[in-house]
Write a structure and sequence with these properties.
By secondary structure, the protein is an alpha/beta fold. The protein has two domains: 2-212, Rossmann fold; 220-254, no CATH class. The protein has twelve helices and ten strands. It has helices spanning 32-39, 62-69, 87-98, 103-116, 132-144, 162-179, 190-195, 214-218, 223-230, 245-254, 280-291, 298-309, and strands at 2-3, 6-7, 21-25, 51-52, 55-56, 72-75, 150-154, 182-186, 199-204, 207-213. The strands form three sheets. A six-stranded mixed beta sheet has the order 6-7-8-3-9-10. A two-stranded antiparallel sheet has the order 1-2. The protein is globular and about 55 Å long.
């Protein structure tokens, strides 16, 4: 994907596991938002494909792209609400624009989504009359009114304090438990990254550093990953762009070539709130991850084994022999 002579990213290949929650990390300016817009067909890469149920969002006929786009719910970074409309009318907008439902049915759906995101009682307010966190939740409610199969969230935590971010993290997990949608979250927030996703990826230097089960990235020894997760200045990421080789060498010399990172502890993934059904994604992910266990790095394998060993009722894990295809 390029804009003129500026290359945003290239050689990006991944599959988002259906029904699971995935997070994409990366320093500012690495093309994460562009990636989201490419998935939904708002931007078209110069080369490559984006396949959703057999429809290529890059080169398929516009009619097919338009219909496939209805599978998506998109939560924009700032909520993207119409300032002159009440929250109710903002959330109802996609239903009035894309369906022929009666107003009574629209009201039922909108109020259900408003209750889902905890905004009951605020439906008559204008966006300028509520907090930024409430606007984000209203944007999420609007993304859900068409019952999407795929939910994209662009930095849902930006501008939120740690407490509201914790509530938002739980809300995202609860949504996955309720609707079993495929979810992709772009974020810089390490708390969301550590506790919400089933899978994690990272963009850097115009490419995809890694994408896979959360344990792969959280145990990675890639310098850019360790720097990002630790929030350190030392490493490949600079203030405006990646650092050059001389700067990295000077940092290594000043540190004596010794890594000072403390061992990372993988915190448990959030579970649905009491009263909600279990996430259907959990069983699917377990089967999928165990099937690829022998192809994962040793640190990730150990972390996955530990995760499932601590899960009540989890089956005993048996590592396949090296080189075995079974």
């Amino acid at each position: 994907m390029s804009f003129g002579k500026q290359n945003i990213w290239q050689d990006v290949t991944l599959t988002l596991p259906a029904g699971e929650v995935s997070v994409m990390l990366g320093p500012s300016g690495t093309g994460k938002t562009v990636f989201l817009k490419s998935l939904i067909g708002l931007l078209k890469p110069q080369r490559g494909r984006v396949l959703i149920d057999g429809v290529d969002m890059v080169s398929s006929p516009e009619r097919d792209i338009y219909e496939t786009r209805k599978l998506f719910g998109l939560m924009f970074q700032d909520g993207a609400l119409f300032g002159s409309m009440t929250l109710f009318d903002n959330i109802a907008f996609p239903l009035r624009e894309h369906t022929r439902k009666r107003e009574s049915e629209i009201r039922r759906i909108v109020m259900e989504r408003i209750e889902l995101v905890g905004l009951l009682g605020a439906e008559g307010k204008l966006p300028g009359e509520i907090s930024g966190g409430m606007r984000k939740r209203a944007g999420l409610a609007r993304a859900l009114v068409l019952d999407p199969q795929i939910v994209l969230c662009d930095e849902p935590d930006s501008g939120l304090d740690p407490v509201r971010t914790a509530y938002l993290s739980q809300l995202l997990i609860d949504l996955n438990a309720r609707i079993d949608a495929t979810m992709l979250i772009v974020t810089h927030n390490l708390d969301i990254a550590a506790t919400v996703p089933d899978n994690m990826g990272m963009f850097f230097r115009g490419g995809l550093v890694t994408f896979g089960p959360r344990e792969v990235l959280l145990t990675s020894d890639e310098p850019v990953v360790t720097q990002f997760l630790a929030g350190r200045r030392e490493g490949p990421i600079g203030m405006s762009e990646e650092k050059d080789a001389a700067t990295l060498a000077a940092e290594a010399d000043s540190a004596g070539g010794v890594r000072t990172d403390a061992p990372r502890v993988i915190v448990p993934q959030l579970e649905p709130s009491p009263g909600l059904p279990p996430r259907a994604a959990v069983a699917r992910r377990r089967e999928r991850v165990l099937g690829m266990l022998d192809r994962l790095p040793p640190a990730a394998r150990a972390a996955i084994q530990d995760t499932y060993a601590r899960t009540a009722g989890a089956p005993t894990l048996r590592m396949p022999a090296t080189g075995s295809g079974s």
